């Protein structure tokens, strides 16, 4: 499926790509609304509706991913609440073997994520995946979400790469579209970013279920 001889740099999303998106979905759709309900004397369905409405309005923007923004908006310590369900943080299948494989093939592996630094650092502490990465870039450091073309230009300035010899793996179709528009030649989408939800039918981009489908050198 991939000609690894044509790839020097591998850009990797985190949530839904390297890590199971179930953690984040559970947090935003269930756990945080429950805590918001208790803090504001609401029923859980009422809190879920309010939180969902607020997040939907900002979907795809940098604020949508910003834990500090939501702390201010909801009047809650969102980074602290984020840690209350850390037992759900988990690698997706074959992630560790895939990262080791990239190292064995001497590929440059960069984590490029929309995750806010507070949540990002926590997940790195839990999973230890940073040991296999050559650099870690959060969109919050660049000032633009990955959905924006400005992110990719800023990334190129921060961590120069040849788009024609770069593989980018993500679960977000809008982000993959932005990467394609920038000129990244090799794109892959994750079919089942959340292990508790069904796999998706992906037609816009080449797609895989798990990393074992593209593992290179063992």
Automatic annotation (TrEMBL):
Query: Which PANTHER family has this protein been placed in?
Result: GMP_IMP NUCLEOTIDASE YRFG, PHOSPHOGLYCOLATE PHOSPHATASE
Q: Which UniProt keywords apply?
A: Hydrolase
Alphabetized NCBIfam families for the sequence: HAD-SF-IA-v3, PRK14988.1
MF terms in GO: 5'-nucleotidase activity
| Class of this enzyme | hydrolase
Q: What is this protein called?
A: GMP/IMP nucleotidase
Question: Which species is listed as the source?
Answer: Microbulbifer bruguierae
EC number(s) on file: 3.1.3.5
Q: Does the keyword Hydrolase apply?
A: yes
| Higher taxonomy | Bacteria, Pseudomonadati, Pseudomonadota, Gammaproteobacteria, Cellvibrionales
Give the top-rank taxon of the lineage listed in the UniProt record for this protein: Bacteria
Q: What CDD domains does this protein map onto? A: HAD_like
């Amino acid at each position: 499926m991939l000609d690894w001889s044509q790839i020097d740099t591998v850009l990797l999303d985190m949530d839904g790509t390297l890590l199971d998106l179930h953690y984040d979905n559970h947090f935003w759709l269930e756990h945080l609304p429950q805590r918001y309900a208790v803090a504001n004397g609401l029923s859980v369905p009422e809190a879920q509706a309010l939180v969902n409405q607020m997040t939907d309005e900002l979907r795809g923007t940098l604020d949508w991913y910003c834990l500090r923004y939501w702390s201010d908006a909801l009047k809650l310590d969102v980074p602290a609440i984020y840690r209350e369900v850390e037992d759900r943080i988990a690698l997706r299948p074959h992630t560790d073997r895939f990262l080791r494989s990239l190292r064995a093939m001497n590929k440059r592996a960069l984590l490029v994520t929309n995750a806010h630094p507070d949540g990002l650092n926590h997940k790195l502490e839990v999973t230890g995946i940073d040991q296999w990465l050559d650099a870690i870039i959060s969109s919050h450091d660049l000032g633009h979400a990955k959905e924006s073309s400005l992110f990719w230009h800023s990334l190129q300035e921060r961590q120069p790469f040849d788009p024609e010899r770069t593989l980018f793996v993500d679960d977000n179709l809008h982000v993959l579209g932005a990467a394609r528009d920038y000129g990244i030649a090799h794109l892959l989408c994750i079919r089942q970013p959340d292990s508790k939800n069904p796999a998706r039918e992906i037609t816009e981009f080449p797609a895989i279920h798990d990393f074992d489908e593209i593992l290179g050198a063992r």
